[in-house]
Amino acid sequence: MNFQQLRSVREAVRQGFNLTTVAEALSTSQPGVSRQIRELEDELGVEIFVRAGKRLTGLTPPGETILPIVERLLMEADNLRRAGADFASAGRGRLTIAATHSQARYALPTAVRDFRERHPEVVLHMHQGTPEQVAEMLRHGEADIGVATEALARYDDLVALPCYRWTHSVVVPPGHPLADGKPLTLQRLAEHPIVTYNVGYTGRAHIDEAFTRAGLQPQVVLTAMDADVIKTYVELGLGVGIVASIAYDDERDRHLTALDARHLFAVNMTRLAIRRGSYLRHYAYDFIEAFASPLTKRVVEQALAAGDGDSFDI
């Protein structure tokens, strides 16, 4: 039994049992992948995959049992390498952060700056994606830390820690009818075309839920994952923007007016997630605390040991 065999099994599942893409992902040949899988099956005495001719089509019942063990073995091998690097190259290494655009653009810059000042020899890699993509990068070991509002708390193999609460703001051009000083209501908002986030991004669910509860159908004319894009089209007069409050800056957005909408939409929670069972190098804890000061190393280690980030509150 060797790690290449285990990687072949894991990647076959991740790639939807397509051996061509498995070979590409592992930088090897398709016959080589097939041989690695067959050799492991022969050693274990069971078939891991269901086959139709030479094609893999799914996992057998033994395969369903074996796959989580394969995942754990490969994760522990990665943990072993990280632990060794922690002692062999203290102060040097890499840290990969996966985040949604809003978090990467508005919430993380200060933490990145502070971290870089403290750990100048650590290379930071930032990946952006949807909340679901952030979760998958963590689950596949492609990122060390994930930051997003939605999705992260829904995965059993991730420990999602609450970081901070935030609300939405409505942004309009100066002189817009909604900026007349009268109370902002959902009814008034629904009278105007709306530009806001894509479904699944940055608290969009809470926006939709508020209108639904009020029995209103908002006129959503454009959606985007990026608050800067939303604000650009609001400036062009396409509609009224609903964005995360942290995405508005008085100086940078002086061509827009922000209206407090915290009374209209539910409060959102940004979470930081780590793959359950993963080993974090010492500087990863420093990054976490730089981003959310209540998340000290002791708090994070306790959450990882308990396997429940929701037991900690801010």
Features:
314 residues, alpha/beta, Arc Repressor Mutant, subunit A, D-Maltodextrin-Binding Protein, domain 2, five-stranded mixed sheet, 12 helices, globular
Topology, pairings included?
Blueprint: H1 3-14, H2 19-25, H3 30-44, E1 49-52, E2 55-59, H4 61-88, E3 93-99, H5 101-107, H6 109-118, E4 122-128, H7 131-139, E5 145-148, E6 158-166, E7 168-172, H8 186-189, E8 193-197, H9 204-213, E9 219-224, H10 227-235, E10 240-244, E11 257-260, E12 268-275, H11 282-291, H12 297-306
Helix pairs in contact: 1-2, 1-3, 1-4, 2-3, 6-11
Number of strands: 12
Tell me the Rg in angstroms.
23 Å
Might you state the CATH topology name of the largest domain?
D-Maltodextrin-Binding Protein, domain 2
Note poorly predicted spans.
none
Largest β sheet strand count, sense and barrel closure: 5 strands, mixed
Number of helices: 12
Would you identify the CATH architecture of the largest domain? 3-Layer(aba) Sandwich
> How far is it from the N-terminal to the C-terminal residue, by CA?
46 Å
